[in-house]
Specification:
The protein is of the alpha+beta class. The chain has 2 domains: about 1-225, Alpha-Beta Plaits (2-Layer Sandwich); about 235-265. The protein is about 30% helix and about 15% strand. The chain is built from 8 helices and 9 strands. It binds iron/sulfur cluster (SF4) (2 copies). The site of one iron/sulfur cluster has 13 residues, from helix 2.
Amino acid sequence: MTACREANSTHPEFNAEDKLWDAPLDLSALTLTVIKAYSEGSAENKDQEKDGFAFVKKSCLHCIDPSCVSVCPVSAMTKDPALGIVSYNPNNCIGCRYCVAACPFGVPRFEYDKTIARLRKCEMCKQRQADGKIPACAEICPTGATLFGQVTALRAEAERRHQLTAGKLAFFPRRTVDSRDTQERPSPHYNAKTYGLIEVGGTQVCYLAGVPFDKLGLPVLPEKSFVSTSETIQHTVYKGMIAPALLFGCLLFAVRRHGNHNKNEDK
Ligand code: SF4
Ligand code: SF4
């Protein structure tokens, strides 16, 4: 979170009581990535649901078919066709906040306290990537809990981890998925599934966890992206122009009736 602040020039969010600690509870226009904690019962067992605890990193998931891009009326949100980064252009933005309402993960945050406000969200450190660096969160993470790489390589790594036996020693890369900088440690227990492979058409940020994903604030979502669902509805409604013709017919009928009614009143 601190590395993210440095990379994106956001200042700490001090708590209300003593204004001392940078302790944001959620994403905001100042906090583009946040680590949240899950705990249950005695909270003794790491990455386990019962009497356990776990951490989860929240930020933009850079959806493959992003709703925020689809709803933006002025193309202020765009998806890079090569890297897949979902970017924001404040110069185009008209502040409608459709993207805030459309994101299934509650990611984009608006600067409500500013006169000239922007949206803020993770842009996968695109400024660092342009300089040949990796995102700051992956660069700083000491354990490889956050890893950067090609989506196909990350998904393959997730699959490799699903094949490991919990408790047995295994090697885990740090910073980048193909890094030679690895740590050997006991393999944790993982959920059977990887989050982000199918949810709303897939996301470029994927999650592995030992605790059910919905307990970590990752919602249960349909496989089809909202974008393709809305397109299907539009295409069905407009198929053969039947619905508009019917609507037009109804409107015409209503207008005629109204016109006749007025004529009768004039007599
Ligand atoms: S997580 Fe939300 S803000 Fe990020 S790309 Fe997906 S829809 Fe857009
Ligand atoms: S608030 Fe800006 S980025 Fe979001 S949908 Fe509206 S114009 Fe697009």
